[in-house]
Sequence to fold (711 residues):
Amino acid sequence: MSEVSKEQTVGTPAAAALGEPVPAQRSGTEDTFLSVRDLRIHFRTDDGLVKSVDGVSFDVKAGETLGIVGESGSGKSVTSLGVMGLHHAAPNARISGEVWLDGEELIGADPEHVRQLRGQKMAMIFQDPLSAMHPYYTVGAQIVEAYRVHNKVTRKVARARAIEMLDRVGIPEPGKRVDSYPHEFSGGMRQRAMIAMALVNNPQLLIADEPTTALDVTVQAQILDLIRDLQKEFGSAVIMITHDLGVVAEMADKLLVMYGGRCIERGTAEQVFYEPRHPYTWGLLGSMPRIDRDQTERLIPVKGSPPSLINVPDGCAFNPRCPYADIPKDNITRTTRPELTETGSGFGSGHFSACHMSQEERTRIWTEEIAPKL
Amino acid sequence: MAAYFIRRVFGAVLLLLVVSAVTFAIFFLVPRMAGQTMDQLAAQYVGKDANPDTVAAVKKNLGLDQPLYAQYWDFIRQIFVGADYKFGPDVQHCDAPCFGYSFKRHIEVWPEIVSRIPVTFSLAIGAAVIWLISGIATGVVSALKRGSFLDRFFMSVALAGVSLPIFFTGMLALGVLTVQWPIWSDGINYVPFTESPLDWAWNLLVPWCSLAFLYSALYARLTRAGMLETMSEDYIRTARAKGLKESRVVGKHGLRAALTPIVTIFGMDFGLLLGGAVITETVFSFQGMGKYAIKSVQDNDLPIVMGVTLTAAFFIVFCNLLVDLVYAAIDPRVRYS
Fold:
């Protein structure tokens, strides 16, 4: 184990830079498994600096599920890659901020040490299991490999473990299917195998990057159930990255809404779903299809398109698309960046949002204009 | 897997038959369409002192008086069972595999080809080993250090390698290494492996490198492109997410996928070279298949041209068959489609 050369005491992340409020769960740091502070991941490209993640903070406790929601290109996947230390794959990536995993800071840590944690303490499952598994190796061989990187065991022991994991994730005849290739599996089976591979070392943090996007709806529910069961069984912290609010509603304890590489709203699932305080979150909720609504009613899309991460608007990133941008605000110019501030909420503390409109104004718009239409 | 194997072998045999028919047609049918009579063809074999009687005899002996399909049948048959050629009272027996008889040089074609195979094979195999190692290694390094000085340097050299023809690099190497700085002071001559393995390798070193330079340049570029593509695949990210060492990510997960297209191209290139590296053999005056083919074309010695062409075609088809089988071993998805 290499020593982390950081002055902060283990387990107490430094107060976040740039005045961003420290997330509410700070009091409960002893059971906070992952703590991310002011994470920034920028990529230098020929066209300019791409600010994929620009100051994101959050906490996840053991046994808890955090949902990260946002449009494509909002920086949710890059955030997770940054936590895993996988941004190194891009030579033009620059990262700053702090990632505390179980009391250890990872961004300043030796990459070799982070590599040893990867797959062992923190694991990840990806969107499309067909392209995420190597087509030339059997499913078993790939699980065996994942197990043997972190455990000094013989091939035979690892293979038995692989079969055990395949059985655990609900693959029939695991003793036979262990020698199958990924292309011989159905989509749902592949994702199960992918989960088996991620969980083979009992990781305490599981990051699921759009785990059900590439699957049939019927299979989606099975996979989500599986993740939830395994989470209960192993007590792991889970980060569920998705653009599907239905998935988050089912899974997440806490929510983080990202827009243009920034966190624009954060709170418990109840807070964000029942008392959202950001126009973008309103837009997301309004664009979600609902089974209990009349089908003749049109969904309300969020107007415009997501910002280019090279030219994120100076002030509020959502400003160009915001239907309330013209409402006069005190002492605010277009270049002032809204900070995450705590929102008074009927669901307890810990609800933050970043909007220039006053609390009263937003509460009024939500209760009078938005909520009745949803 | 067995069905796949049988299908491929069957296809290869069929392909060889087609190649032989086309070759036969080019050498016998096309001249005839252009107005050449069988008498004129037979006269070629007789030489300068041709009188009508000998021409007629040769025509009969060679079966040139028979219809073309019968001639083709004889040509194929003699490969498997041999043939007899009559010269007045003498009978020359040509053992199977008999690829015909050169009446210009009064020799059987097949033993001539066989005697040239070691030269060509030595050249091709040695060069292939060199270009595979150097080409793939530089390609991988270039891809991993994309945009670095090393990458630019390798790719510039590779561009030169692809652009410079072998009759330039080969001649240059020959001139510099035997005359300017006479490291090979006695010149470069082929020494059979069975005679002295050391001299064999020493004399082949320059031709190997000349030939390999051209190909390794090509392979370096191919490997680099393949690696760049593979390393951005999702399964590479998965391999990293498992916590594998980067060397293992590159070697086991990246390279294996990136090398698949290289195997295909290598099969074709290597098969082609086994049929004779025409220019390299000519530059270094090696009596290989390529040089032999050129000479027989110049001499208008049809049986030899046919024999060399078919042999070369056989190697290409054979290597491609091997590639198909190796491919199935590498990529499990091929086996079932």
Chain B is about 75% helix and 5% strand.
